[in-house]
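Let's do one together. I've listed all components of the complex below, 334 residues spread over two lines.
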Amino acid sequence: MSAALIIDIILWSSVAAVGFIALQRGRLVLTNSVREGAMDFINIVPRIALGVVGSGYIAAVIPQEIITGWLGPNSGWFGVLTAVIAGAATPGGPVVGFSIGAVALKAGGGAPQVIAYVVAWALFAFQRLLLWEIPFMPARFVWFRAAVSLPFPFLAAAIAMAIGRP
Amino acid sequence: MIVIAVLVAISVVLVYRRDGIVGVTEILIGDLALFGGILPRVLAGCLLGAFIAEILPHEKVSRSLGPQSGLKGLLIGTAFGAILPGGPFTAYPVASALLAVGADFGATIAMVVSWTLIGYGRAVAWEVPIMGTDFTLWRIVISLPLPVLAGALGRFVYVRIYPKGAPP
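Okay, and this is what the predicted structure of the assembly comes out as:
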C-alpha cells in the first residue's frame, strides 16, 4: 500500500470522525459546517488550479543546476545563507524541493547547508506561501509567520554543525 | 493571484520558445493530472477545517491556545501540527480555523511550522524516498525544537507590534 493511499485514508477518516462529532451536536451543526467547507472549497479551487497547473511551467524555466550550484560544497555560513535563499526561491512541490536537496547532497554539498535548504524550503518556499498559505489564511498571519521563521534554517544548520549529523 | 498569473504566463511563453507546443502541452497534461489528484484532498481539508471550527469550543481553544496559554499552548500547537494528516490543503484550512476560534498567532505559528517541519505526511511520502531515511530522521530530530521556538518568537514579536491586541 502506497504512502499516499495511507495518508488519504487517515485524512478522510479524520474528516469522518470530526463530521460524526458534528452530527452528534445536531443535524444543523453538520449541514452548516458542510456548507462552510464546500464554500471554502469552491473559492479555493480556481486559485489552486492556477497554482498547480502553473507551477509546472515555473519549475520548468528555473534550471535545477543553478540552485544546486548555489549550495556548493564546504561553503560554510555563506553556503547556509545561499541555501536559505535557494530554498525560499525553489518553485514546485515536494518532488522538486527534495530532488534538488538530494542532488546537492550527491554533488558534495555539506549536510548543514542541505538541512538549511530543506528547512528553508519547508518554512517559506515563496510558491507555497503564495499558492497555498495566502489563499487559506489571513495574509497578515502569513507574512508574520514567514518573518519570524527567518532565523530557523540558520539555527537548524548550526545544530547540524554542532552535532556533526547527519 | 495576479503576480502568480503573470509569473505563470511568462513561464509558459519561455517554455514555448524553448520546447515548442509539445513542451507546453506535456507540462499541462502532467499538471492537470496532479490537479485532479489533489482536488479530493482539498475538499477533505476544507471540510476538516469547517468541522473543527464548528465543533471546537471557542473558550476552551482560547484558553489552551490563546495568548495566555504559555509554553503549554505552544506544545499543544506543535503536537497538533505534527499529527495532522494531509498536505497544505489540510494544514492551512485547519490553522485558519484555529485562528478563527481563538488561538493566537504564537500557537498557530507553532502548529504550521510543526506541520511543515516534523509532520509525517510529507516526510513519509516524499522525503524518505528521495533524501533517504538517515537524512530525513536527522533533519526531523534537528527540527524538533523549532516549532516551539518559532511560536515563542512569534508571541514575543506580536505583543510588541500590536500592544493593544490585533487590529481589525
